Structures are given as C-alpha cells and as structure tokens.
Amino acid sequence: MTSPTISNITTRVLTKRSTNPSWNPRTKWSEKNVLIVFIETDNGMTGVGEAWCEGGSPESVIALIDHDLKPGLIGQDALLPNKIWEDNFQRMLVSGKHGIVLAALSAIDIALWDLMGKTSGLPLYKLLGGASDKVFAYASGGLYAHGKGPTELAQEMRGYVDMGFHGVKIKIGGAPLAVDLERVAAVREAVGPDVRFMVDAVYNYSVPQALQMARALEPFNIHFLEAPVSLYDIDGLGRVCGNSAVPVAGNEFAAGRWAFRDVIERGGVSYVHMDSILCGGIGEALRIGALASSRHLPCSLHSSSSAVGFAANLHVAAAISNCDSIEYHMVHQLLFDQIPSGTFVLEDGYIRLPQEPGLGLTISL
C-alpha cells in the first residue's frame, strides 16, 4: 500500500465569547480562542489537531505553522508522525520560539495520528496499544465570577456530581487564603466525602504560601493540589511536594519531555499533569507518560479547550497504563456542540472511548 502524503495544511480559529466573564488567578475570560489544524492528504483524507494558543494571539502560532513548518511538510509521508516531529523539532531548535514550536508541533502531530487511526480503521487508543477503554473524568470548573460566593460555587460543583461525575476541581489562589478555604469547605460539604476533590492554584503561590495552603487543605481530603508555584520554580515545587501531606500535580504548561524530566527527577510532583495540545502532541505525551511510569508516578491529562484537544488527551489517557484521570472542563467547551451526541459517554464517573477510527470526531474544514 502506498502511504498518503500531505497535500495541504489549514488552520481555523474558533472563538467563544461571554457576557459574564469568569477568571482564575491569572486570566480573566470574556472570550476563549482555540486553534484547530487540518491536514489533508493526496488520497482525500483529513486529520484534525489542536494547538494551545491561550495567553496570546492565535496568529503567532498560525504564522509559525504557515511560514516555518507547512512548506517543508507538503509531500511528506503522512504515516510517519514521529519522523516528522523529530525532523521539525531539530530544525527549529535554534529558533528561540520553543513554546510556539511545541504548540504547533502538537497540533500537527495530533492530526497525523488522527490520520493514522483513520487509515488503519482503528480508534486511536487501540492503535497506540490500549491500556483501557474508559478513563476516570473529573468535572473542572469552580472559576471566580462576580456574584459567585461559596454557596453558588458549592451548588455548581454539586450539579456536576448529580450529572454523574465522581470528581470535581476548583480554582484557588485568586482570593485570600481564608476566602479560598471557605470555598473549599463549602464544596467538600456539598459533594460529600467520597467524591474526588482537586484544587488548582494556576502557579500563583510563593513556596511559603503554597505550604500554608497545603497545611490548611489537609482536613478536606484533597486528591491533589495542582500547580501551586511558578512553572519555572522547579526547586520550589519540589519543596512543596516534599513537605505537603496533600499530593501535588504539575506542570501542564510544561512543553517537551525534557521539562517534565526535570520536574520528575527533582521530586516536584506526585501526579504528572500534561496536555497533548501543548506538550508536543500525542507521541510526546506518550513519551512523557513512559517517563512518569519509570518513576512510578501516575499521570493526569489536562484539557480546557475544544473537543479536539479533549479527544486527543482522552486517547492518550486510555493508551497509557499509569493514567489517573482526565479533566473534563465545564466552562471551556468549544466544538462540543458540533460533534455527534454520544461521542463522549460518561458512565459511573468514567468516559468511554469513542470507537470510530482516529480521534473519533467528524469536524469540517
């Protein structure tokens, strides 16, 4: 069989606007952008991927794809995603655009793996080796908003449990410690003692603040404290993890296996938290999962964008043997309304893997 070759690469930016802004400790949203990438082949097939573009203009990532990557990808064998990733990563190594390169390569890699699944006729998680056909999913929300106090927050999270989720996550670090603890206490009371409960500080604490919060969280049976200190304070992250009774998760905004190696080897986390749309794609997420497994660490998959990003992370989660969970964001849900009902089925707290080939999505150019 002759392998399909790449004939075109197209990007699309989708925007969701809100008249009732919400925020985490670092970002306030009145609109949310996602960048979708389509790769077409000479035999008429199309693969879809997504690139992380939060915190800046999507156009910066688009420009890199269109001007630096696309010209060299046209005509390449579409069934060699690892070769394409390595060739382009090495070529861009001296560009000084590390984060944007990894975001762009993430989208391209995901789209190529989607094509691999479609070509083979297999759902991607099975093509990748398949450790399970379901993944524990937690409902992620709990953002700050005007008029949203502990009572309203507790009602929100209880609603997710009533929908069938057995885990929830809220933001902390955007209010004084006493206020955030009141929010945490209200949620724990609302969801009950048996629901997994995670908190995310979005890298907003100093080490002393993180340790103070970790001690204060001990009575609430927190599954993990996510991203407590700066993304670049790996030693500080290690100090928090080593001195906290609450497990620590991180760093989903790290890019490339080398960044995760540093976090893991310096004892920074109890849970390796990654996202295939920014860490380097599906292939790189698998390599990071294997690196975590070599240190007996579970992985949790971050997801807060579109159905494409969620699907990519879901397939990675089901393909690795050390997966703890995947984030199901209840606020940032672009394209979820444009995929067939039943694509992502929640059963007893777990998302069942779609059985269609590739990512299991049908999304138009």
Question: What distinguishing features does this structure have?
Answer:
365 residues, alpha/beta, 38% helix, TIM Barrel, globular, eight-stranded parallel β-barrel, Enolase-like, domain 1, 14 strands
Task: Describe the 3D structure.
The chain is an alpha/beta fold. The chain folds into two domains: 6-120, Enolase-like, domain 1 (2-Layer Sandwich), CATH 3.30.390; 125-352, Enolase-like C-terminal domain (TIM Barrel, Alpha-Beta Barrel). It has eleven helices and 14 strands. It has helices at 58-73, 81-91, 98-120, 124-127, 150-163, 177-191, 207-217, 234-243, 257-265, 282-294, 307-319, and strands at 6-23, 28-41, 46-51, 134-140, 144-145, 167-171, 196-200, 224-226, 248-250, 271-274, 299-301, 323-329, 345-347, 350-352. α1 crosses α3 and α9 packs parallel to α10. The model has no long low-confidence stretch (mean pLDDT 97).
Overview in brief:
With 365 residues, the chain is an alpha/beta fold.
Distance N terminus to C terminus?
A: 27 Å
Give me the CATH superfamily of the largest domain: Enolase-like C-terminal domain
The residue-averaged pLDDT reads: 97
Strand line-up of the largest beta sheet = 4-6-7-8-9-10-11-12
Q: Helices and strands: which structural class?
A: alpha/beta
Estimated helix fraction: 25-40%
Q: State the CATH architecture of the largest domain.
A: Alpha-Beta Barrel
CATH class of the largest domain: Alpha Beta
Q: Sheet bearing the most strands, described?
A: 8 strands, parallel, barrel
Q: Which percent range describes the beta-strand content?
A: 15-25%
Q: If you consult CATH, what is the topology of the largest domain?
A: TIM Barrel
Low-confidence stretches: none
